[in-house]
From TrEMBL, chain B:
Gene name per UniProt: kdelr2b
GO biological process: protein retention in ER lumen; protein transport; vesicle-mediated transport
CC annotations in GO: COPI-coated vesicle membrane; endoplasmic reticulum membrane; Golgi membrane
The protein, known as: ER lumen protein-retaining receptor
Taxonomic lineage: Eukaryota, Metazoa, Chordata, Craniata, Vertebrata
Main location: membrane
Organism of provenance: Gadus morhua (Atlantic cod)
Amino acid sequence: SAPPLRHDEL
Amino acid sequence: MNIFRLTGDLSHLAAIIILLLKIWKTRSCAGISGKSQILFALVFTTRYLDLLTSFISLYNTSMKFIYIGCAYATVYMIYAKFKATYDGNHDTFRVEFLVVPIGGLAFLVNHDFSPLEILWTFSIYLESVAILPQLFMISKTGEAETITTHYLFFLGLYRALYLMNWIWRFYFEGFFDMIAIVAGVVQTILYCDFFYLYVTKVLKGKKLSLPA
């Protein structure tokens, strides 16, 4: 799956 | 959030605090690569610009501010406050040979050709090699203070834990980010030599000195 463009990791 | 990512973030925070306290308490940045610390400040600055555009959680936002604040405080202490103790003669890694190619790579290989995304990609690539000036400096001086080895241990451990976090997220959430994973693998591999010395020497109470 394409990664979400909203990066939720530090 | 999962246990690997939480312990990874705490390990990263521990590393950052250990370094900050080491310099502050000893009032000396001997053996510390200012260049690596500048690269880390650049990594956080380019990665956390989304502080201005999106809110994920209080944890996410507060940790980003802590990381950025500590990074700049560390750079300030190295190049201003305790500049007299900065060992510039051994901190000679040519960082431009890292930043320029990585800047180009971020333009070529990314998830989305938007400014924020390219900066995020640049930050991910840069973080994977940002420790090289520090490792290079230790190889030049031939030794490292024990507190510095603990700093490096937690710093290396954090991304290794993130690799486990990505396995967890792929298995349970079907989430994976190839750019972060590849860069994270490279980053962790760069620490392997240090991890070996840390476990075989420092954990046995010896000083870390090279060549072994």
